[in-house]
Amino acid sequence: MSKTTITAALPYANGPVHIGHLAGVYIPADIFARFMRNKGEEVLFICGSDEHGVPITLRAKKEGVTPQDVVDRYHGIIKDSFQKLGINFDIYSRTSSKTHKETAQDFFTKLHEKGVFKEISSEQFFDPETKQFLADRYITGDCPKCSAPGAYGDQCEKCGATLSPMELKNPKSALSGSVPELRETTNWYLPLDEIQKDFLEEYIESKKGDWRPTVYGQCKSWLNDGLRERAMTRDLDWGIPVPIKSAEGKVLYVWFEAPVGYISATRELIPESWEEWWTGDSELIHFIGKDNIVFHCIIFPAMLHLRGDGFVTPSKVPANEFLNLEGQKISTSRNWAVWLNEYLEELPNRQDELRYVLTSIAPETKDSEFTWKDYQTRVNSELVGILGNFANRVLVLINKYYGGNIPTYDRKQEVSNLSTEYIKPVTDKLSSYKFRDAQTAFMELARMGNKFLADTEPWKQVKTNPKETENILGFAYEILSNIAICSEIFLPETYTKLTQSLNLEFTNSDKKSFWSDSKWYVPKSDNSIAEVELLFSKIEDETVEFQMEKLKNSVESTTTNQTQKEMITYEDFTKLDLTIAEVKECKKVEKADRLLHLTLDVAGIEKTVLSGIAEHFSPEEVVGKQVLYLQNLAPRKIRGIESHGMILMAEDSDGKLRFMQPSEKVNSGAKVS
Q1: Candidates 2.170.220.10, 3.40.250.10, 1.10.10.10, 3.10.450.50; correct CATH number of 111-234?
Q2: Distance between CA 630 and CA 647 in Å, rounded?
Q3: Which of 203, 238, 296, 461 is deepest in the core (most CB within 10 A)?
Q4: Rounded CA gap, 573 and 556, in Å?
Q5: CA dist., res. 364 & res. 361, Å (int)
C-alpha cells in the first residue's frame, strides 16, 4: 500500500491562528486526512510552527524580549488551539527543534556537496544606523505593482505580488526608518533558472487539469516571466546557521528551511522509517494558502529534485484563496481578525460550529467572506434547525415510544440506491478536494431525514399503525447512524456525541466500507440508545453583538489617533505654510528632559524651534536631517526661548517617532502643497 504524506502549511509563530488560516488550510487538511485514514489508507498528517524569519525578530524587538520568547509563547498557543478545535495532526513540531536544525543543515549540505548552489556576491541593502544588512522583510517601500505604501521587500500584502527589495520605490529600513545603502555581501543561491527548462516546466505542465486553476496559473505566470536564481541564505542573527565555514554570521533563508520542516517533523515522529514517507511509492500533498504557492510548487520541488536520493515532489497542492472578514481583508497588524484561541475561550464547546461555518464558506475557488451574522444564521438554521433537529426528534421518539430500544423494522430501501444517492456524492467530493460541496452533500442526509419524518408522521401512526411506526423510526435511526459515521470527518465533537447517544461503536471495517466503497451503513437493530443530548444550541443576538463590538474596539485600540478631528475646508488647509527645512544645529534644553533646541535652515534663513523629541533622538541624530516644517505657527516662548513654528513627526502604533522626510533630498525651503 502506498503512503500519503499530508502537510499543512507551518503557521508563523509571531501570533495566534485566525479564521483565515483555518478556512484556507487547516480545516480542509484535517477533513482530508480524516477521510483518508477512515478509508484505510496509510497517512501521515504533518505540521508545526515556523519559528524563524524577520517578523519574529521585529515582534521581539517591539516587545523587548528575545525571539525565542516570542516563538515559545505562540507555539504553545497555536498547538493548544489546534488540539481543542480537533485538528488531528500526527505530529505538531517546530522549526526551532534540534531535529529540524540538523535536518535543514543536512539538506543544505547535501545540495552544497553536489555543487548545486551558486556563490554570488551582490549589493544588498544595509542600514547605516543599525549597522546590519537588511533581510527582505526589514525593507519597506511603495509597491512597484500597485503603488501601495508599506510593501515589504519580499511581498506586497495589499496586491499579493511577490517582490524583491530592489523593486521597491522609496525603500526604507523597517528598523530605523533611514534610507538604506547598497553594500556588497555574499550569499548562496538556488539556480532556478538552470532547471526551469529541464525540470520545472515539465513538472508544472504535468499538473495541468489536476491542480486548481489558481495554482497552475500562478506557477505558469512565474515560468513565463522567467525564473532567476534565488538566495537561500540571509545575513541575519536569528535562524539556522549556514553549515559552511565561509558563511559565518549567515542563516538559512526561512523559505529554504521551513518546507524542510515537513521532513524534520516526519523524522522526529518516526526516526527509523521517515524516508519511506518521502521516497519511493509515496505521495506528497500540500495544503496551503495561495500566497505560498510559489514556495511549495516551484522552490521546494526544485530543492527536492536537486537533492535527488529518490525524494518525491508534491503531487497535489489544493491551495485556497483568501477569507475576508466583515467586508474587509483580515489584517493582523490592525487586529482585524477572529483569533482561534479567543474564539475557543469566548464560545466554549462550539468547536464544530466554527468548523462547519468555515467549511461552508471555504475560499476554494475565489475569495469568500466571514460575517458574524452569517455565522449565526448557519448555526441556527442549519446545525440547530436541520441536523440537530433531526437527531433530537429521532432519539426523543425512540425513547418515548420504545423505552430507548431500537425497534425491529422491515427494510424497504435498497442499500445500493441509498449509497449512490447519499454517500457517493460525499466521497466523490472529498476525493476531488471539494470540501464545501462534500459538507453540503453530508447535510443532505439530515435534510432527507427531516423530510422523511415530516412525510410519514410517526407520532400520528403510533396508535393506529404501530408496525409502520417501527419501520419509520427504525429507518430514521439508520439515517442518523449514517449521519454519525459521516460526521467524524467534518464535525468530530458531534461524532462523539452522536455515537454516545446512539450507543454505537464503528469498527475500522465499517468506516472503510463507508468511505472507500461509498456504502450505506446498516446498523444492528438489537441496540438501545443512551441518554439524549442536544447536539447544538442557538447563537443569540447578544453573542453576535459582543463579537462585532469587540472587532470594532480591537481595531481602534491598535490604531493611533483613531478619533477624527473636526472637518476643515480647503481654505483652512491653504493657511498652513508647510516647507522642507534642514537641521543645522541641535542641542538639549537645560532642565528639560523632553526638549531639543533646533536651529533650522529655511531657504537660507535661520529659524529656532523647540521640539519635544529628546526622549526619542539625541542631538547628533537630528543634525543634517531634512524635516517637514510648519513655519507660520504663531511664536511661543518655552523655557525662556522663543520657538518659531513646529517640525511635524509621524508616530507608530508602538509610540516610536519618525521624521517626515522627502523621498529624495530637495532644496531647503521647498514648499509642500
Answers
A1: 2.170.220.10
A2: 6
A3: 296
A4: 26
A5: 9
Helix residue spans in 146-212 (DSSP H): 192-195, 201-205
Tell how strand 42-49 and strand 91-94 pair up. parallel
Cell of 90: 500526527
H or E segment and range at residue 608: strand 605-611
> Buried b vs exposed e over 328-351: b needs ≥16 C-beta within 10 Å?
eebebeebbbbbbbbbbeebeebb
Domain with CATH 3.40.50.620 in the chain: 3-110+256-320
Q: Which residue has the cell 516563538?
A: 71
Question: What is the C-alpha separation between 114 and 222, in angstroms, rounded?
Answer: 26
Q: Find the helix or strand (DSSP H, E) in which 547 lies.
A: helix 541-558
The segment(s) of the chain belonging to CATH 2.170.220.10 are 111-234
* Contact yes or no for 363/321 (Cβ under 8 A): yes
pLDDT of residue 17: 97
Between 3.40.50.920, 3.40.50.300, 3.40.50.620, 3.50.50.60, what CATH number should domain 3-110+256-320 receive? Answer: 3.40.50.620
Q: Phi-psi region for residue 457, left (φ > 0), alpha (ψ -120 to 50) or beta? A: left
Strands 3-8 and 139-142 come out as unpaired
pLDDT score recorded for residue 1? 66
Q: Please state, in angstroms and rounded to a whole number, the distance separating the CA atoms of residues 297 and 282.
A: 17
214 closest CA partner among 24, 52, 459: 24
Handedness of CA 381, 384, 385, 388 (dihedral sign): positive
Query: CB–CB of 530/501 below 8 Å?
Result: yes
How far is C-alpha 327 from the geometric centre of its chain's CA atoms? Answer: 18
Give the residue among 451, 467, 51 at the shortest CA–CA distance from 264: 51
**DSSP letter string, 84-117:** HHT---SEEEETTSHHHHHHHHHHHHHHHHTT--
Residues of the chain with pLDDT below 50 are 560-565
What's the CATH superfamily of 570-659?
A: Nucleic acid-binding proteins (2.40.50.140)
Instruction: Please enumerate in sequence order all residues whose Cβ is within 8 A of that of 427, keeping only pairs 6 or more positions apart, or say none.
Output: 35, 515, 518
Residues 6+ apart with CB under 8 A from 361: 23, 323, 368, 369, 370, 374, 436
For 591-606, give the DSSP string: T-TT-EEEEEEETTEE
CA–CA gap between residue 199 and residue 216 (Å, rounded)? 15
CA 478 – CA 504 distance, rounded (Å) = 11
Per the DSSP assignment, residues forming a β-bridge with 642 are 637
Residues belonging to the chain:
673
Query: What pLDDT is attached to residue 155?
Result: 83
Q: What is the pLDDT of residues 33-69, one digit of tens each?
A: 999 999 999 999 999 999 998 889 888 988 899 999 9
Number of H helices, E strands in the chain: 25, 24
The phi-psi region of residue 669 (left if phi > 0; otherwise alpha if psi is between -120 and 50; otherwise beta) is left
Architecture category of domain 386-516 in CATH:
Orthogonal Bundle (1.10)
Strands (E), 323-425: 323-325, 328-329, 368-370
* Residues in CB range of 272: below 8 A, 6 or more apart: none
> Rounded CA gap, 227 and 192, in Å?
6
CA atoms of 364 and 32, how far apart (whole Å): 14
